[in-house]
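Q: Protein A?
A:
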Amino acid sequence: MSDIADASLAYEGVKRIEWADRSMPVLRQIRERFADERPLDGLKVAACMHITTETAGLIRTLQAGGASVALAASNPLSTQDDTAAALVQEYGAEVFARAGTDREGYYAHIHQALETGPDLVLDDGCDLVNTLHIDRTDLLGTVKAGCEQTTTGVIRLHQMALEGALRFPMVAVNDTDTKHMFDNRYGTGQSTLDGIIRATNTLLAGKTIVIAGFGFCGRGLAERARGLGARVVITEIDPVKALDAALQGFAVQPMAEAAANGDVFITVTGNRDVVNGEHLAVMKDGAILANSGHFDVEIDVRALGEMAVEVHRGSRPQTEEYVMADGRRLVLLAEGRLVNLAAAEGHPAAVMDMSFADQALTCAWLATAHATLSPAVHDVPKDIDTEVARLKLASMSISIDRLTQDQEDYLHSWRLGS
């Protein structure tokens, strides 16, 4: 039995899902293929994901392949209640999600999704897999395999595997080339700035934007912030990534140094306390704090609350103004949660088209391949990643070259010299 906020919102949800679907041609092609081939026939899927119109496209594709789907939210602030209603009322999925639910409700919904006894699991941050291994070990024997689509979740899965705790194979969908390129770089780059602008209506041109982390998400953010006229400062712990940022012309500083000069701070690291009390103490009046990492731990919100003498809410949606004892005001966006999903709409549908295509094809592969995989973190097969890119190019009416037979022979021979 689903748990959603308002079933009467289904009509609005369907209209928005159909709008997003028009920008997801790759997933549409896979859905048509799945309807014919039924690669997931009879399988139960439990997913913990953002309840958005784009996610609805993935759920419908899995259903077309023969799966029954139970869906819980991976972030209460990103849940679209009309999408949840449409998935239940019009598309026959089980959904356990309400916008703005508290931590207790969040985990209750994950437990409800798991009650369906899934064969495959899809996770967005590893909370569902974590819950399985800690609270619902009775279900571990029925789970064949799963997918994880976030950097944070993959980090947690690798640690579980390292400790010998992971009980079934998980595929790091997050680590495909297509997802790094489209989702992390172009999607996060655009949608994070979209969330900041919607929440604050601030002009980014001329501002100093400090970006913590120069992975694929950080690179995308830095490129787009520079394009909008901002001065960009990168903070990093990885010497190679820091060097890459410097050679691309970005300033690179420790956070302790950058904290005093930044106008906008964006965290995209997957780690905790990246912006801590020491940094908050020296920030300038009006500094904006935004997180685009999966969990709300990258900015030390507890320290911010302890340092503040007043907190003003409601001036603008998804903004909280923390007033320090010296009169400085620090503006926290979306409670320190994912700003692109809480203050905006997340990635454009065209971006999620590729990420969810990776997910759908990987699920179909796992339906049979799971028996050959160990309880570890596995990569998506290269041919799946290549197929998604090929389908996307075709949808854009772009053709590319093919190797001739002579070129194939040359690449596969070690006997031919210069």
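Q: Protein B?
A:
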Amino acid sequence: MTGSATYQSVFLRDLRLSTAHSLVTQSGAPGQGLPNETPTRYLQALIDGLCELSLRDPLTGLANRRHFRSVLEREVDRMARSGEAALLLMLDIDHFKKINDTHGHIAGDMVLQSVARTLLGCVRPMDTLARYGGEEFAIVLPSCQATYGRAIAERIREAVESTMIRVSPALALNVSVSIGGAYALQWIRSTTQLWIERADNQLYQAKSAGRNRICIEEQPDSTVSAEEKSMLFGPLSTYYPPADVDRSTVPLADASGRHTGR
């Protein structure tokens, strides 16, 4: 808004809110309605509800791809600043097309919902679990050290494999998942697309190797030493003489700070 913008009252009766109202109320808990004490509270609750719907997958209730990508962008930025490890897991339900073809799409939807609930029971509150698309899911795990990544992925794989999914009174199914993973590059401002591609490549390898297994990319050694951090974040005056000093008389320094002469 600019300084010259004018404000005027808006009456709810002049807005077409019936569709938005239905979407928000139908997606909430039974009996939970929008507040109606004041028009402002009602409208704010309606806007908040629509924002929440725009970030959720309607079938599983998980974060959707839009929300997932925004979380991934923040995590890449945090990684570049802090250097803490973070793991991205991409998961795909094995032979899902066969489930749809054999038992129907309703059974397929029930499988997706069941797997989503199982995955929710395997992640921490700080993790982000999303339905990436179709039968594929994604999990962003901040502060996940390389020594624990494979164990976490194996626990997820076992949990899905051991869960019986009842799709009708006479039919129960078991499914498995293939999992690919990649760590964010520490101290490097990479891109979300590159991170996804690296994890997706590992998922492809897991499926090519027979499915129902895990492939996690080896994390490169990106440890930054104390001396390197000092060079990256220390004051420039440590390495560069003031502007009024004849630089030809100042000895050079190597990466460790030792003078090397000319």
